Every structure is written in structure tokens, then in C-alpha cells.
């Protein structure tokens, strides 16, 4: 890492990484209002103002997308199609072969992104306001490994809860059932990223109902404009 003599000098302070964009700490330089505005401008620059012009799925005004991981990657939502039908949502898989702009347009066509814990949830940045992300995690994953409270906008220092806070998106993490008790000892949690899950429709539907109540308050806190879509849905 160090290849010159200057590296041997002593320094009074050091910054490792970009503190201003870390989701796991409260930055002194940038607040939620600033990062939310940046996210909105990025969305408009990439997708255009007012995008989308028509929904790709959902009912009564709320557009929802369930992101399904590819086979062999682990954390597959085994009943994704069934739950999507109940919710009126689309199910899609994002592959490396799909152009990034196309993926961004898909994410930008929905208000709510639902998916297992994983990098695809980062597409929340482009979701259409009022945007929300529902993160699904295996119930057996210990809190010491992954914070998942089951409450909206509470996991502010988790990976995707923190990201949602920075870009002005609602976030909730829900613990879903698995079949691990029949397969292995729950003491071995090192392989949790390979565990498949079964989505609980009632739990997700309940979270969506709760979303209506707090959307207005959240928009007021981040300085955004409250959308009536939530009131049209529930």
C-alpha cells in the first residue's frame, strides 16, 4: 500500500473512506435533506422528469416490484409468484447481462421494491416517489449479524435502512420463515446468505398498510412533497 518514504511520516489525523456518505453514522457535513435532493436529481437526470408515465403493475395507484435473485445465488423467495399475485406486483430478476439503464427504468417505474437482503435493493434510489423498500431476511439470522426490527424507518444504521435514510426512501426489514430447522443446526449461521425464504403475505400487506400512516410525516421531515398515492391505495 505504501510505496514512498512520505508514508513513514506521522499524521495527526486520518480519514478512511468517505464519511459524508456513510449510512452507519450521522455526518456533520451532509444531512438527509441534502442527500435526498441529490438522489432526486440523479433520478431525473437518468430517467427524465416525471418518469414513469405509466405503471408496470400493482393496483389502485401503487406500483410494486418483487426482485427475485437468480437460481444458485441463495436467498431465493420461493413463493414470489404467489405473493406477487396477491399483492398485484411484478416479479423480475436483474442479471448482469441487462443494461444498467434498463434496470434503472424498471426500478423507476415502481413505488415499492420488495426483495431479499442483497445489492439489488440499492435500486431504491430510482424508485418513484413516494418510494419504499421492503427488505426480507431469514428469521433465523441473529440480530448481531443483521439488524431487522420489523418497523418502518427504524433500522437507520443497517445497510439498506441507512441507505434509505440518505436518499429519502421508506424502509422496513421483515423476518421471513425458512425450512432450516429441518436441514441444519441453527448454531451454524455463517451460511445465512445462501438460505432461501418464503414470503409472508399477511406480514407484507400489514407493512404496506402501516406505510400510509407514516408517509406524510416522513415527507415533512425530509422536506419533500407528500404524494396522495398512499391514501389512494389503502
Automatic annotation (TrEMBL):
Location(s), subcellular: Membrane
Single GO MF descriptor: glycosyltransferase activity
Record-level GO cellular component terms: membrane
Keywords in alphabetical order: Glycoprotein, Glycosyltransferase, Membrane, Transferase, Transmembrane, Transmembrane helix
Membrane topology: Single-pass membrane protein
One family name in Pfam for this protein: Glyco_transf_61
Residues covered by the Glycosyltransferase 61 catalytic domain: 40-134
Protein name: Glycosyltransferase 61 catalytic domain-containing protein
